[in-house]
Amino acid sequence: MNTFFKAISFMILLTGLFACTKKEATTIYSSYKPILMDKGRITTELFLAAPRPNNILGQMRRMGDYILVLDYGQGLHIIDITNPAQPVKKGFYSIPACIDFEVKDNMVYANNYRDFVMIDFSNINQPMQARREANAFDIDVKAPDGLSVYKGLTDIPAGTVIISYEKI
Amino acid sequence: MKYFYSIILTTCLIAACSKDPYDNLANDTRLTAMNTGLIAVNNDFLFLNKVNDITLYDFGGTQIRILNTYPRQQYRELSVTDSFIYLKGSKGVVYSFRPPNILTEVKPEISLQMQVLPSDLLIKDSIHYILSRNTEYFGQYGTLMPAVYSGASSSYKALSGAGRGFDDAGSMMFAQDTVLVAASKNLNLLNPLTMKRMAYQSGVFENIRTYCINIGNYQYFSSGAKLYSTQLNGFAITPIKEIK
Fold it and tell me: What is the interface pTM, i.e. ipTM, of the complex?
């Protein structure tokens, strides 16, 4: 009886070892959750606003006495560096779903979701949209840490798109 | 005795089912997540990484004019300096070509003299670079490497023995005759030729890609939700302070 029990146990042991040899991929989820906006508002919500708190900062470019700092998917912080030792936030220019921009002279070249836009900052107090090319880019706004968003946060209501992210 | 076998069985099952902690490192894309490469400019040209092609424009006030287009399937990201254009291909290879610095149409036979970098410079497909005088610095996940372009041989040659490893070389710039590298949470100041670290501040940044810009004697950094500035003094870094 004792030998029989040992044999059964050994078979169960082997079965157990081979049952789990196929490893499942581990998913590391992002620590960010999406910020949504109605599609219809994305191309109309370009405006100058008061300074606002930073969210997810990205690249920086100089424009004269100012630094423009990308806030991922939301727009550009305008930092006055007239006194470079004491930079001062001057304002914020909203560009929904903006994930990349460049500066040449007083012109900002940016994406506004999938559109390409040029914004003339010659008058820093009144930036003007100078050009728009619809659907120039084939992009989606991904989580800034490059990781997958939790499944529970990926249900996007119809008519909306992800423009940015915030910490969970 | 049967309890002994039960314990052994349970232990073996747990060991067999535990997951490999390194499974997902290959999928870590933190460095590239915010490096989209949609738009690039240099002194003379604007480049857009568009749906179907990379389009080269010249500037004209509020107007821009298409000079040329290049099939997009060869390139996913682009960066430019005044002399070089870097196009990251589908296999993680960097190409460069030199358009003439005049506002005339760029001829494909001139502009598409592609140069494949030495393979030992390119370990993975995340490339960052800075340009300083005649030396370029190529960084990827683990290494920052200075290399010199030789027009005679149309090739890049790495400076011998000057590479330096980083856990996560996310952002770098040339400032005050030094190379500044924001890697992980830390700021490193390197000798530009030897890559020897001359100064170091640890734990100053958030654990997300840091961006930097050099303006005059000041350096500015963005990291997560915070903005910082500092000032170099030779091979020393004044303490970084947050810009509120």
Answer: 0.82
